[in-house]
Design goal:
This protein is an alpha/beta fold. It has ten helices and ten strands.
Length: 248
């Protein structure tokens, strides 16, 4: 597999947030990670992208990323989005992408700090094209809709040309039509070769577009497989209906 997380373990004091989680993503594959609130989904993304200390082993394209800080994991091709999806509202959409796509020198960074506008490169424009956002390129980010902001967040990760993107609840706050449109674009991005790990509470979205789904409960994997099989798994049904072990 292109990406592998082996025995990922996270503790916060006396809380065992993740317990030996195993997850793999192949090239061009879209894998969903679901589970009830507090199951450890965002913690898993934080762990594999280097934003929280974790045990276990993380590899991408055969290169071990375990122990590396987030910026070095990102440079090796492991990108992520955030639940809040905040953009620089005073920049245009394409300038938001350019910030992620560029790795400027110190002189360039100083120039931008002093007011020089960020210039968009080919990677930023290409990412906009892949998500159908080219018409919004020169629009101020503060003027676009919530659904468009979510897509720009994904495009911003794509602009760095990663090998894999971890998406943390990209459909949060979207209506059904916006979620469907987001899913269509995510599926197209995966089909074009960029691997994706999708965390979201929109079960229709996850089960509708993912190749493989992994289910967490209390920080441990309770089921994994194709969406149709996971949907009918008794352990998954119990977890979501609140009758699993550890619940009243």
């Amino acid at each position: 597999m292109m990406f592998q997380a082996e025995s990922v373990d996270v503790r916060y004091g006396g809380v065992h947030a993740l317990r030996a989680v195993e997850l793999a993503v192949g090239e061009g594959q879209l894998v969903g990670l679901i589970g009830p609130n507090g199951a450890g989904k965002t913690t898993f993304i934080d762990a594999i992208t280097g934003f929280t200390r974790a045990g276990g082993r993380i590899t991408l394209d055969g290169r071990e990323l375990s122990g590396l800080p987030p910026h070095r994991r990102a440079r090796h091709g492991l990108a992520r989005t955030w639940q809040s999806g905040e953009l620089f509202d005073d920049l245009t959409v394409v300038e938001n992408l350019a910030v992620s796509a560029q790795h400027p020198s110190w002189w360039a960074a100083i120039g931008e700090t002093l007011g020089r506008r960020v210039r968009a490169g080919d990677a930023a424009v290409e990412a906009l094209d892949r998500l159908g956002l080219r018409a919004l390129a020169d629009e101020p980010a503060g003027t676009i809709s919530q659904g468009q902001r979510k897509l720009v967040g994904v495009a911003r990760a794509l602009a760095a040309r990663p090998r894999m993107i971890c998406l943390d609840e990209p459909a949060a706050g979207l209506d059904t039509a916006e979620s469907t449109e987001l899913g269509r674009h995510l599926r197209a991005v995966a089909d074009s070769g960029t691997a994706m790990l999708l965390v979201d509470h929109d079960m229709g979205l996850v089960l509708g577009i993912c190749d493989h789904v992994v289910v967490l409960e209390f920080g441990a994997v309770i089921a994994a497989g194709p969406p149709d099989r996971v949907r009918d798994d008794p352990a998954v049904l119990a977890a979501y209906l609140g009758t699993a072990k550890g619940t009243p």
